[in-house]
Write a structure and sequence with these properties.
Elements: E1 2-10, E2 13-24, E3 28-32, H1 38-45, E4 49-54, H2 60-63, H3 66-72, E5 78-80, H4 85-91, E6 98-99, E7 105-108, E8 111-117, E9 126-130, E10 133-137, E11 140-141, E12 144-145, H5 155-166, E13 174-177, E14 183-184, H6 185-188, H7 192-198
Parallel strand pairs: 3-4, 4-5, 5-6, 10-13
Antiparallel strand pairs: 1-2, 2-3, 7-8, 8-9, 9-10, 11-12, 13-14
Helix pairs in contact: 1-3
Protein name: Hydroxyacylglutathione hydrolase
InterPro entries: MBL_Glyoxalase_II, Metallo-B-lactamas, RibonucZ/Hydroxyglut_hydro
GO molecular function, one term: hydrolase activity
């Protein structure tokens, strides 16, 4: 399995970047969070078949380019937790997506990604786990959890999601995030109490 990271820039906001992840081999891939610059992501995918587009949550900066990217790649299914449909509709009032449920599995290049629902940042925030790797979107970053400043977010809930759903993974599990650098479960786990004490 190959994992490629593509840093994408929001239109007109070059300082606002997101990580798009391309997972697979030289024949087929799954793309996680094609956030911006659909043409550039399509170029990176090349002639490989896109089996699915997986979205970690419904915030605009993670979903804006998803339909346009899918259209460029032959319309693979775009998957999102329906608990975030209200956020998806803010950006895509008329576009359809396929629902993700906890435990759903997506296979590409002989590797299976399992959906792990981790609410807190948004109600439908979802991570994708495979052997030795987890794609966390905005649930877990190097140095702490994602933001919970919106009325639909919940700090206690994101902490519970991280503790109960992510920190049960092995220490050497690589954490590939929605923004910024990757980290590991073992590096972040010892700091949980610090995050709880500071409240963010």
């Amino acid at each position: 399995m190959n994992i490629e990271k593509l840093i994408t820039e929001a239109p007109g906001q070059p300082d606002f970047t997101n990580n798009a992840w391309i997972v697979g081999d030289d024949r087929e891939v799954i793309v996680i969070d094609p956030a911006h610059q659909p043409d550039r992501i399509a170029l990176a995918v090349g002639d490989r078949k896109v089996r699915a587009v997986l979205l970690t949550h419904g915030h605009w900066d993670h979903v804006t380019a998803a339909p346009a990217f899918a259209a460029l790649m032959g319309d693979p299914p775009v998957h999102l937790n329906p608990a975030d449909e209200f956020l998806w509709r803010e950006t895509h009032p008329h576009e359809a997506f396929r629902p993700i449920a906890d435990g759903d599995e997506f296979t590409v290049a002989g590797v299976t990604l399992r959906a792990v629902v981790t609410p807190g940042h948004t109600p439908g925030a979802t991570c994708f786990v495979t052997d030795g790797v987890v794609f966390t979107g905005d649930t877990l970053f190097e140095g702490g959890p994602g933001a919970t400043r919106w009325d639909y977010s919940d700090f206690d809930r994101i902490i519970a999601s991280i503790r109960e759903r992510l920190f049960i993974l092995p220490d050497d599990t690589v954490v590939n995030t929605g923004h910024g650098p990757s980290t590991t479960i073992g590096k972040e786990r010892p700091h949980l109490d610090e995050w709880i004490a500071r409240g963010w």
